Amino acid sequence: MELRPFPHIMEIGTIKNSAIHLDGFPCASTGGFRIFYVQEGKFEWTIDHQTFILYPGDAALILPRREFGNKNKVLEIGSFSWIHIEIRINRNKELSIGSWSSLSPGDHCEVCKILQMDHLPVLQKFPESGAILKGIQTELFNKEIGYRTRINHLLDELLIQSSRKIARMSNSGRDFPITFMDLERQLRANLAHQWTVEEMAALAGLRTTLFNEKVKSYSGFSPLSYLINIRISEAIKLLKRPDISLTDIALETGFYSSQHFSTTFRKLTGYTPSQFRKNHLRIK
What predicted TM-score, i.e. pTM, was given to this entire model? Predict the structure, then answer.
């Protein structure tokens, strides 16, 4: 998409990722203000040295000079949109939006103040941001009459809606059932067990049908696919330890055999477990 008429838009795009990329999302800091909106999947992102789990409908707001990425450099399965806007920090260490914005001086001051507040950088259940990002991309693609003005107005709308969301945030935490967080902890604590959907549903205290629906809604995956992603994420951690054999890793993370482990790992990452371990040890 052509961005020359919008020098204040440093980058915009959408990623649809169908396989795990082991070196696809390293942590990095940049100038400008970044917003990432999760459409599908589950992402573990580190923002300013804190790790957060994001689900569909969640958005991450990254201020200038803040580090952002995956601490293990992993780009997980799923899709997300993002935009990188040139918003600077002035000499007084305050955010400053460029002249492209039509915000009034009072709104400009209030929006920047709220964005820079000491708040969690993840806004849960924020579909408005996804709709605005889609609108900006549509305007960039179609280039109809007035699209330049429309895009700048949508950027203002994105900042306004983000500020309102932050202002409305309570201290009650994410609107995500604590039972699912407990479920994941229990699964990780005993991955060697051959979990069935019925057993996982029982741990969550739900009927199997409702459990399937809720897991799909929150994570973007079926329960078994969700479990496989957990198994692979734990296997990646263990593969970085040369003192554990591939067979032990396979059994410890719940795969039927070394071959089952190798096939699944390669399908999701593009590498066999031995290739991943060799590359990681060589880099170190």
Answer: 0.69
